[in-house]
Amino acid sequence: MLQEIWHTIVAEFSDVPDVQTVTKIATRIFVAAILGGILGYERERKSMSAGVRTHMLVAVGAAIFMIGPTQAGMLIGDLSRVMQGVVQGIGFLGAGAIIVGASTRKVHGLTTAASIWGAAGIGMSAGLGMEATAVLSTLTVLFVLAIVPIFTKGIREEGALASASATSAPDDGPKKEGRSQKLRE
Question: Distance between CA atoms of 135 and 126, rounded to whole angstroms?
C-alpha cells in the first residue's frame, strides 16, 4: 500500500520530467517575478497603493497561467482563451486600484491600474518563454512611468492653473479674517 501511495505521488510530479524542464519553468517564473518587481518598485517609490509585491504576484500569476497549460500540451487556440481570461481578470484587479474622489470628482490610480495590466502582459510573455520580449516590454513601461512624466509635468501644471482660474470667483475686495483663516495659519 505504501508503495502504491509513493508511485501516485511520483506520478503527480511527472509534469516536470527532467532538469531542463525544471530550469525552463524556474527561469520563466523568476524572470516574471523580477520584471514585475521592477515595475512595482517604481510605483512604490511614488507611494502608490500597488507596489513591489502586487506587481510581482501579478506577473508571476500570469506566467503560471501560461506555463501550466503549455506544460499540459494545450493548443494555441485553447491557450488564447486562457490569455483572454487573464486579461479580463487583471482588469478587475486594476479597477480596484482606481479611486474617484467623492468631493473632487478626480480619478486617481489609472496609471497604477495600467501598470498592473502591463505586469500581467509581461508575466504572460515570460511564461510563454518570450523573456526578451518581457524585458523589452518592461523597459518600455518603465520609460512611460518614469521618463514621460518629466516631459508632461508642464502640461499638467498648465492645465491645473487654467482650470483653477476658470473656477475661481472674481475678487470682491478685502475680506474679513475669520476664525477658520486664523486656524489655518
Answer: 9
